Amino acid sequence: MLDSLPLHSLQKMLIMKKATITLTIICLVMTNIALTQIVPDAGPDRVVCTGFFGMDTIAIGGSPSATGGTPPYTYTWEAEYTLIIGSHTFNFSASDFLNDTTLANPEIIHAIGDTICFKLTITDAQGLTAIDSTSICFNYFGTHLGNIQYTINQGDSVFLSGWQNVSGGFPPYEYLWQPNHGLADSTSLNFWAKPQYSVAYYMTLTDSAGCVVTGAPVYFVNVQPVLVDEHENQISLVKVYPNPVKNFLNIQISPKMQGDFTLRLFLSNGKLIEEKRFPGNEYKMDLSNYPDGVYIYEIHDNKGFSEQGRVVVK
Questions:
Q1: Residue 280 sits in the same domain as residue 217
Q2: Is 137 a domain residue?
Q3: For the chain, what is the mean pLDDT?
Q4: Contact 49, 56 (CB under 8 A)
Q5: For residue 297, what is the enclosing H or E element?
Q6: Domain limits for position 286
Q7: Is the pTM above the cut of 0.70?
């Protein structure tokens, strides 16, 4: 049959056959390259919550940390960190932070208040290598054991403000005061408390990275019982009216109190929005431009007198 074909047809068939063989060889080479390529995975960047309460236990690396190439693999974790304190320089390596720098997924055993970059080198059975890295941020928190104590009569309220014993982490923060007994707002740094019995309030802080830390009790409120006749004889020295108020709020202080006074006005979440100092026993405050809502007022002098209450603007 081939003898009967023209010469130019035979040449075309030979050229096509060579091209097919060449394409087959190229495909085989490409397939071999794809099979021998190593894909390393050092894992995602992570935040490790750490501080006085201890440290999260986490392992770094992917799942798995290597694919492709020719198993078995050799894993090498590396890191470099320099800490300077005064005139002293301290150098750290991966072995200072990891339990084993030759594992696919080593655990972090020590922390430092900074971000460390860990480099993973994968070597397969053919000696081929590939590199990936991951950043670990050590999210530090601190605390103290300081506290504030208040003593109030049963039925009274106390404004707790400006004191917290947990710090660090990444803002913004969420706060939760516990126990919730007698609290007007348990999620603010500044809040009113009206407990019916003595209580110690402590705070749990959650930062934007999801780290949760609980401190020791910081506010101790001691509640003293009040006898019926004592309670009936308690008379407020401050008269605030009208309440609710739309325009002007009148403040009258008993003539028993003399001197200069300071009026502080807070939002219901404890944020101070106004502070006025006035002489004498009467003061008129314009609230016509204030949004409707509940406000907290406090009136005090420099002799220890203080009285607090609520006013509604509407």
A1: no
A2: yes
A3: 83
A4: yes
A5: strand 293-300
A6: 236-313
A7: no
